[in-house]
Amino acid sequence: MRLLSSSERGASCSCLTLAFLMLLLCCHITSTLSQKSESALTVVENTEGGEGAGSDDDGDEVTVDEDEEEGDLEVVQPTEEWQTLKPGQAVPAGSHVRLNLQTGQREVRLGEEQLKYWTQEHREEKESTSFTPDELKKAMKKIKEDLNPASRDTEQQDSVSSQFRPLEELKRDMAKLDLLVETDVQIMRRLLDQFNSSNSTVQQRLSILLELEYLVHQVDNAQTLCSMGGLKLILEGLNSTDFRLQESSALVLGSALSSNPVVQVKAVESGALQTLLTVLATSQAHSVKKKVLFAVASLLRHFPFAQHHFLSHGGLQVLSELFRADGRGALRTRIVTMLYDMISEKELISQAGLDPALDASHEERVHQYSKVSLQGELLEEGWCSLVPQLLESSDHDCREKALRAMLAMAPVCLEQYRSDRSLLGSLVSMRDQYQGMVQSEMILGEENGYFAEIVDLIDALKVKMTV
Predict the structure, then answer these.
(1) What pTM did the predictor assign?
(2) What is the structure's pLDDT at 152?
(3) pLDDT tens, position by position, 76-121
(4) φ/ψ bin of 258: left (φ > 0), alpha (ψ from -120 to 50), beta (otherwise)
(5) Where is this region: Disordered (predicted)?
(6) What is the 3-state secondary structure (H, E, C) of 80-142?
């Protein structure tokens, strides 16, 4: 046996020491791997292609299979972002845990099932549920107020009181104003007393008539005014020497007569028709004649009894003189319109009288209209030659009304129409003029427009004259 040298003995000792250390390390690793704690972590393979398998992950992803006994451990609430786990911290079940190989620290985030329901809406809802300290103070204050209804009622009463004036103060103000609520009847009574007072000035009476004209548009008020004696005062206003009172009185009378048979009867019985015709024949003011014509037309409309008295008192003669004297033409159009209305009314009633199913009231109206000899009066007063003069006007409305009246008067005026050589030429010229306007209407999509209607009236009159 050869004895080892000192150098060989040193090397052999070093190898034995290294081998012993390696053996101890292997035993420690084996013992560590063989042990399994209650919160053991298992390395899993990410087969879903989630964030765990992405290029941004720095370590293997693990999933907690079992919940660790919490005890006094701090439980971390994971989010959708990775966050570092500190020693002694626990995580809920279903969370993803990984070991970051770069930092050597464990990280945790929400699991796939949790992320599936962790949408933007849930995040906003969670963020919205957080409260600031000021909001919490206000909420606590409101809870105290709700628990104390007496203080809340007091505050509400104070708020209402600040918006409205006290009742006693309102009563004092109302007493100072001395308000008086009047009915229409009381108002008309007061106005008539003021109008009849000798102390009333012309301006005050004009204001009174203006108020009355507004009130008598209502049927009941007009009838009440007559029963109060107001009709007499209005007729006195028509006889006034002040043309302003005449004009206002005629306007009130015409408004009261419109579509009001009761007032029409009372007006005829009070002599209103004679007064109106007198004013038409004697007044010099154009505005007065205009309002009086309105009152006459309102009195005669659908009232054959008044029409009969109108003709018997020379009404057509007064109108013919007024027609000839009117140089501006505005009164002419009103007169012709009134005559056309009277002719049309009688014609419609006469045609309706042929119906055997009419009752006694209709038969009476037919009988009343039969007493109105309007056609003969028109022929005698020269209206067959007066109405065609309106065709010379440049106003379309004036021409239209003249054509309608001429057609209505054709049964008695046709011979005079034919004898007037210039009339047929005027109709032909007018038709050519309006035919161009009709073409313009048709371009605008109006097949049966206003000018087309005028052309139809011209054609109808030409047919009657040439047959």
Answers:
(1) 0.61
(2) 56
(3) 788 888 888 888 788 887 788 888 878 888 888 887 766 665 555 5
(4) beta
(5) 47-75
(6) CCCEECCCCEECCCCCEEEEECCCCEEEEECCHHHHHHCCHHHHHHHHHCCCCHHHHHHHHHH
For the record, the structure tokens of 2 come out as 């050869």
Strand order in the sheet with 96-100: 42-43, 59-63, 96-100, 105-109, 83-84
CA distances from 451 to 410, 454, 456 (A): 22, 5, 9
**Burial degree of 448 (CB within 10 A; 0-12, 13-18, 19+):** exposed
- Dig out the tokens for 278 from the structure: 């007198």
Question: How much of the chain is helix, strand and coil, in % rounded to 5?
Answer: 70, 5, 25
What 3-state DSSP class applies to 358? coil
* CB-based contact 399:390 (threshold 8 Å): yes
pLDDT digits (tens, 9 = 90+) for 262-282: 999 999 999 999 999 999 999
- Of all residues in the chain, the percent with pLDDT exceeding 90 is 48
Residues in CB range of 344: below 8 A, 6 or more apart:
408
Residue-level pLDDT at 329: 75
Radius of gyration of the chain (CA): 54
Instruction: Give the amino acid at 216.
Output: V
Which pair of structure tokens corresponds to residue 130?
């957080």
Q: Say which residue the tokens 């006693």 belong to.
A: 168
